[in-house]
């Protein structure tokens, strides 16, 4: 199994601001934990540094006007009505180097796609990517350029069938939008229900349009959905659809804001539950381009993405976190130096409430989408 980890230290140059929940420190923290576990070297593993994406590559999805606006605000130029482009508000602040940061994240995900296309890796992981909310002419949800869409477009340029599976707590709306009428791209997003969480979309009824009907799949979840509720819902929906679709490659968006302590969301996953789902997706995928995504409790991000990268390499990690990372993780709030989480006992009625909702969504998907795939 040849694998590639796409990583750059350049992210240390960029900062959304001290009050913003998306902290670039999470990337360095993740890298250092991977390094401590010995996951940054190996005979069939390589670490690759990305270059910024070209403007031409970014305009495959984003409008030229929007790109010029991003470039102008990044340079400190005054842009009238920047808010029309989703810029300058709380979620999407304007900061020096914004344009360079956007190009770098896009370049990393494009590189991950090319490594898989060129058979240099069967699985490539760009954990700084997965910014799935950006729209063609608008920043949204901390995302300025939609690197996931660009990665899929790169794979489609070589006529590969692509399945996109998004397990972030937020709906992958930008990716769904990009391929809503395209039957060569199957998008599957599981997420906290849109009437409870940003971006307010991702209902089962959003099934695609035209030739793409049935190729947009959404599994909304109730707050406090834990591993025990999520896993059977996932198994009922995702493996059958992936087998029926038979993709050449699966693009994974591995947001970990689904974790039970994430400050912005309300799901109740553990790191081990997340990792089990990642491992299952790897079993179902002929090739993998994996991206990061959300995650705002920094030690959880580092633990989950390190465990995911270990799974991509077929490595079983010791539960005790290496001592070299204890101080680093403790500084960001981790109290128990374990890779895995202790059990969580949810009240029985809370779990039943979440389970009932999840199974109703599964029933709708099986009734309305499965027949379109011969299931």
Please specify the SSE layout and strand pairing.
Layout: E1 3-6, H1 25-36, E2 45-48, H2 55-58, H3 64-74, H4 98-117, E3 123-126, H5 147-156, E4 162-166, H6 173-178, E5 185-192, E6 216-221, H7 227-245, E7 249-253, H8 271-284, E8 288-291, H9 298-312, H10 326-331, H11 348-368
Parallel strand pairs: 1-2, 1-3, 3-8, 4-5, 4-7, 5-6, 7-8
In short:
With 375 residues, the chain is α/β, with parallel strands linked by helices. It has helices at residues 25-36, 55-58, 64-74, 98-117, 147-156, 173-178, 227-245, 271-284, 298-312, 326-331, 348-368; strands spanning 3-6, 45-48, 123-126, 162-166, 185-192, 216-221, 249-253, 288-291. The longest helix has 21 residues, at 348-368.
Explain what you see:
- Helix content is 37%, strand content 11%.
- It has 375 residues and is an alpha/beta fold.
- The chain has one domain: Arginase, Chain A.
- It has an eight-stranded parallel beta sheet with strand order 2-1-3-8-7-4-5-6, with helices on both faces.
- Strand 4, helix 6 and strand 5 form a beta-alpha-beta unit.
- The longest helix is centred in the last third of the chain and has 21 residues.
- The model has no long low-confidence stretch (mean pLDDT 97).
């Amino acid at each position: 199994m040849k694998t590639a980890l796409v990583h750059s230290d350049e992210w240390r140059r960029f900062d959304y601001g001290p009050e913003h929940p998306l902290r670039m420190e999470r990337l360095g923290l993740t890298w250092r934990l991977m390094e401590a576990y010995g996951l940054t070297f190996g005979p069939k593993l390589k670490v690759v540094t990305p270059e910024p994406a070209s403007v031409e590559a970014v305009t495959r999805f984003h409008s030229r006007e929007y790109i010029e606006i991003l470039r102008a605000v990044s340079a400190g130029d005054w842009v009238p009505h920047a808010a029309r482009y989703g810029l300058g508000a709380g979620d999407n602040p304007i900061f020096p180097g914004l344009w360079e940061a956007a190009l770098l994240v896009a370049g990393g995900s494009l590189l991950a796609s090319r490594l898989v296309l060129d058979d240099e890796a069967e699985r490539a992981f760009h954990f700084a990517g997965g910014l799935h909310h950006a729209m063609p002419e608008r920043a949204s949800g901390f995302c300025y350029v939609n690197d996931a869409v660009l990665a899929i477009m790169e794979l489609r340029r070589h006529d590969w069938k692509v399945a996109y599976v998004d397990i972030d707590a937020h709906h992958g709306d930008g990716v769904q939008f990009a391929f809503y009428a395209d039957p060569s791209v199957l998008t599957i997003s599981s997420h906290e229900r849109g009437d409870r969480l940003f971006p307010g979309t991702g209902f089962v009824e959003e099934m695609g349009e035209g030739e793409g009907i049935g190729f947009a799949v959404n599994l909304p979840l109730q707050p406090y959905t834990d591993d025990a509720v999520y896993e059977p819902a996932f198994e009922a929906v995702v493996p059958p659809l992936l087998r029926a679709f038979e993709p050449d490659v699966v693009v994974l968006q591995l947001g970990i804001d689904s974790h039970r302590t994430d400050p912005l969301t309300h799901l109740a996953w553990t790191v081990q539950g997340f990792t089990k789902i990642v491992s299952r997706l790897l079993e179902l995928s002929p090739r993998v381009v994996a991206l990061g995504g959300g995650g705002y409790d920094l030690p959880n991000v580092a633990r989950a993405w390190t465990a995911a990268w270990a799974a991509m390499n077929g490595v079983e990690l010791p539960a005790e976190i290496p001592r070299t990372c204890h101080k680093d993780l403790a500084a960001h709030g981790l109290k128990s130096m374990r890779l895995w989480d202790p059990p969580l006992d949810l009240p029985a009625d809370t779990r039943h409430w979440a389970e009932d909702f999840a199974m109703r969504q599964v029933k709708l998907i099986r009734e309305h989408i499965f027949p379109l795939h011969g299931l």
